[in-house]
Write a structure and sequence with these properties.
mainly alpha; globular
């Protein structure tokens, strides 16, 4: 079993715990927003991670609802792909990667992109 993913998560978590994207110039700016002036689906995710690592869930949600609500799905996808524990999670893997699940996620992703720009959220 590889421990690379948990180590990477810890490093990212520590980075966003100590580096505030609101005041620090290091985290990258969104190229989509720089070029178009509109928000991409991931805009605000760095600020959301910073707020989340400090336990401010409501504030994290205000930065990017979709990103925060996607974290459980992403963790399940990684868990069933890299750490299936002797195929014990095959049922969950079939659900996570079912064509309907994947298509639904893409539709929600695009809908979030459109809605957040129409409603300015």
């Amino acid at each position: 079993m590889s421990y690379a993913f948990p180590v990477i998560l810890i490093i990212i978590g520590l980075f966003f715990y100590f580096v505030d994207p609101n005041t620090h110039g290091f985290p990258i700016k969104c190229p989509w927003r720089v070029c178009t002036g509109t928000l991409c689906p991931a805009c605000g995710s760095q600020r959301a991670l910073y707020a989340l690592t400090h336990g401010h869930v409501a504030q994290a949600l205000s930065y990017n609802y979709f990103f925060i609500l996607s974290i459980p799905y992403a963790l399940v996808a990684v868990l069933v792909t890299w750490y299936n524990f002797g195929n014990r999670l095959d049922g969950l893997k079939r659900i996570a990667f079912h064509p309907i699940t994947l298509k639904s996620y893409v539709v929600l992703f695009v809908a979030w992109w459109i809605i957040r720009n129409l409603l300015h959220i």
